[in-house]
Amino acid sequence: xxxxxxxxxxxxxxxxxxxxxxxxxxxxxxxxxxxxxxxxxxxxxxxxxxxxxxxxxxxxxxxxxxxxxxxxxxxxxxxxxxxxxxxxxxxxxxxxxxxxxxxxxxxxxxxxxxxxxxxxxxxxxxxxxxxxxxxxxxxxxxxxxxxxxxxxxxxxxxxxxxxxxxxxxxxxxxxxxxxxxxxxxxxxxxxxxxxxxxxxxxxxxxxxxxxxxxxxxxxxxxxxxxxxxxxxxxxx
Length: 236
Hints:
236 residues, Purple Acid Phosphatase, chain A, domain 2, 22% strand, EC 3.1.4.-, Metallo-depent_PP-like, Ap4A_hydrolase, Phosphoesterase, phosphatase activity
């Protein structure tokens, strides 16, 4: 069984299309999205509608929650006031852009999902089972705490925008990275494929796409230059 997992698309339609094309070539049985469909880039409606068209199983991310309910706070932890200001600009733009129908879709997304594949129970969340916006960074105290009490075979999340896999005794913590706003130092879109058998094997894929067009659209729409820089560099 091969499960593709995508996450943190953040309104980046070109990256999403490139990843879905790549997935199509790799003999995948099912695709799951762990949230944050919207924010930062300029195609939130198109991203939502493409995922709906493809019937991709999708979890709610903190940005989806904020836009769906028009909260005007994204739930991210930004110690730099400038980053917080930019996040507010992104959120306001996205709330104004997303249609009422698509906001309703975001509101109806589940916070978590547990699926069974070949005897393995795999939980999908955005941040963590404890909070939608909790960062389970690799080797972090938070990850140790969560996995210390985790009852399923694998936990798959996003939110950090950096893909990784780590085993905690007989349980796996897997981060799907980010399709639309990677933070691993490359502008390429990234996602994962989980091969389910006696053990779990995780492939991390990096997909090139025309990120310069996305960066130019960000600037054309009056969003912060920092967003375009992030897309071009793959850095936070």
